[in-house]
Amino acid sequence: MTDFREAVIDLDAVQANVVRLRSLIGTRHTMAVVKANGYGHGAAPVARAALAGGADWLGVADISEALVLRAAGINAPLLAWLHGPDADFAAAIAADIDLGLSSALQLRQVAEAATVLGRPAFVQIKLETGLNRNGVDEADWAEVLGLAAAFERVGRLRVRGVFSHLANTSAEDDLTAIASFDRGLAAAAAAGLTVDLAHLASTAAALRLPAARYNMVRLGIGIYGQSPFDDQDAAALGLTAAMTLRGRVAAVRQVNAGAGVSYDYLWRATADTTLALVPLGYADGVPRQAMNTARVAINGSQYPVVGRVAMDQFVVDVDSDSVTVGDVVVLFGDAAAGVPTAAEWGAAAGTINYDIVTRVGARVPRRYVGTLAENTDAGAPGVPGADPTETAEA
Ligand SMILES: *Cc1c(COP(=O)(O)O)cnc(C)c1O
Question: How far is CA 122 from CA 27, 110, 111, 119, in A?
Answer without folding.
Answer: 22, 9, 10, 10
